[in-house]
Design a protein that fits this description.
Length: 434
């Protein structure tokens, strides 16, 4: 009998360690190695020797041996394919507010390698967030709007002949905009007309045949990743020190976000505040066809981390907000994920009625809520007892802790190769009602 008990205890400990390791980003090795760069200011790519400008209307290939200067609003159009070799560097021009748009029907084949990523970066000598525009993929997958959409209002000095290349949306859920794999996008998010910003990567009406894996957006003045409509699958996506949202989903998108990372800094957030994950179904109700599906996001093995070294002080200064915001008529199913160091962890739109029907559309299962100033609240409401009782139920397997980041993650201070996976057996559960 004693031997059986010992075996059972051993299996319990192994299972517990395995379960902890499964939360947040996972991998037997640190998949951030080689292709990411958390300190890109020190990189020197030399002077560009090729220029990309205007419309690309025939199949074009960019080569690693050349360095390209992206100038103005560049559109890939007319069912054209832009192919980019692994290791190619494309430098966005600050003065002309450079951006690259893959128009509806066109494709980009940017397949970098773990050891040879494709890099989009800034041409300023002192690089800053918002130096250039960003990358935009437009497809013909559906949204929940009446009719199709356009991003024409984003561009400064848009040539009238290019307006037709700014449209997105349709009925093809399998719309294929190509491949982005092992790609870095640095210092994007230039301010655009109307006072808002470009995003690092905007995906509008993009369909599920598009491959989006191992993409890092760092030091972006706008959202790192914004998804509008379509059906998008993001795998191993990294947002680092964005001024705005890390991942934003809107207008009826049906999306998956797997094994991905959002790292915030209290010193990089805009005055309007920003979140790791913002999920909404619309900006204006009058633009939306409610017979169509609202936004639904399934997220698994996410790590959302605030790098504050003094959480209470930064909260007092208003520099730290919630990690996740969920809007009315939007759904989130998130599991095996980590939220560490926010104020609070989650906010639900004040228009959401707190009842079983709505809460079943917003799932937090097998989560690790760590070192947050409160867990899940309704907007403008400090009493979250109902939500704590619901999500604190043992059937959801959520864990609550007040563990320091240095003890929670494997290696945060390694400048070249940080490791944001959880430390096994370092999670100390605590009472979640705070």
């Amino acid at each position: 009998m004693k031997k059986i008990i010992q075996i059972m205890v051993f299996l319990l400990l192994v299972g517990s360690a395995s379960a902890q390791q499964e939360k947040g980003i996972i991998g037997t090795d640190n998949w951030l190695d080689n292709w990411t760069d958390f300190y890109p200011k020190s990189a020197d790519y030399g002077e560009p020797n090729q220029i990309l400008t205007g419309n690309i209307t025939k199949d074009t290939k960019l080569y690693k041996k050349d360095t390209y200067l992206l100038m103005g609003n560049v559109f890939v159009t007319d069912s054209t394919t832009l192919t980019i070799e692994p290791g190619t560097v494309i430098i966005g021009d600050w003065e002309s507010k450079a951006s690259l748009t893959i128009a509806k029907g066109a494709t980009i084949m940017a397949e970098g390698l773990d050891t040879d990523p494709i890099v989009f970066t800034s041409n300023r000598s002192v690089k800053k967030a918002g130096d250039w525009g960003g990358i935009i993929l437009l497809g013909d997958a559906p949204t929940n709007k009446f009719g199709n959409g356009s991003v024409a209002s984003m561009y400064a000095n848009l040539d009238q002949s290019s307006y037709g290349h700014t449209n997105y949306g349709g009925k093809n859920i399998k719309s294929n905009s190509g491949v982005l794999k092992y790609v870095r996008i640095e210092y994007a998010g230039k301010r655009k007309r109307g006072g808002t910003n470009f995003n690092g990567l905007l995906l509008a009406g993009v369909g599920n045949e598009t491959i989006l894996e191992n993409i890092m957006v760092s030091y972006c003045a706008g959202d790192s990743f914004e998804v509008i409509g379509g059906e998008v699958n993001l795998l191993k996506a990294v947002s680092y020190r964005s001024n705005s949202n890390d991942f934003k989903f809107n207008l009826g998108t049906q999306s998956r976000l797997d094994n991905s990372l959002a790292i915030r800094s209290p010193y990089s957030t805009s005055s309007n505040g920003a979140r790791c994950l913002e999920i909404t179904s619309y900006d204006k109700k009058e633009e939306v066809d409610f017979t169509k599906a609202g936004t639904t996001v399934i997220a698994k093995n996410m790590t959302m981390l605030n790098l504050s070294d003094d959480l209470n002080a930064h909260i007092g200064l208003g520099l730290i907000k919630e990690a996740v915001f969920i809007g009315e008529n939007a759904s989130l199913d998130i599991n095996k994920s980590v939220i560490s160091g926010f104020n609070p962890a989650v906010i639900l739109d004040d228009k959401i009625i707190i009842n079983q029907e709505n809460l079943e559309k917003i799932k937090f299962v097998d989560m690790f809520f760590n070192n947050c100033n409160g867990n899940i609240f309704k907007e403008y409401n400090s009493n979250n007892e109902d939500l704590e009782n619901w999500y604190g139920n043992r059937s959801f397997y959520n864990v609550y802790s007040k563990t320091q980041n240095s003890e929670t993650f494997i290696d945060l201070k390694n400048k070249k190769r940080p490791d944001y996976r959880l430390r096994i057996n370092k999670i100390i559960a605590a009472n979640g009602k705070n």
